[in-house]
Amino acid sequence: MNTTYTAYAASDLYNAGYSCDGHPFIAECFYVVMENEAGRRFRHAVTFSGTQHSVCEESGESYFPDLREEASAKAERLVERVNAALQAGKGVNSKFWEEVEPAYGSDAYISQRTEAKRVFAEKQAG
Description:
The chain is α+β, with helices and mostly antiparallel strands. The protein has one domain (5-125). The chain is 29% helix and 35% strand. Strands 1-2-3-6 form a 4-stranded antiparallel beta sheet, covered by helices on one side. A hairpin with a 5-residue loop joins strand 1 and strand 2.
């Protein structure tokens, strides 16, 4: 099995808080994943939020500035550092990485029986 990993930036959505009208503000969070050819993946512990909860000094109302460009750039810089370390044969510090579900349909996904585990968990949840 090939153990060469490549890092890339990814993102997920999350509830960053509530706007002044009480509706949830859904924001984007960026992070780094490294994956090998078999689909085995590890996610870096550091995340980069695409916004932050702020309060207007004049009105006291909540707002969420768009920080996605900066957050995405930070994630991409980490990708560059990780890939440079991997290509130089230095490896990475395992305390910053957590194994996550393998890529859908990959060899790792099949060998770890990920789909069966999901179905079992759904049945247990009712």
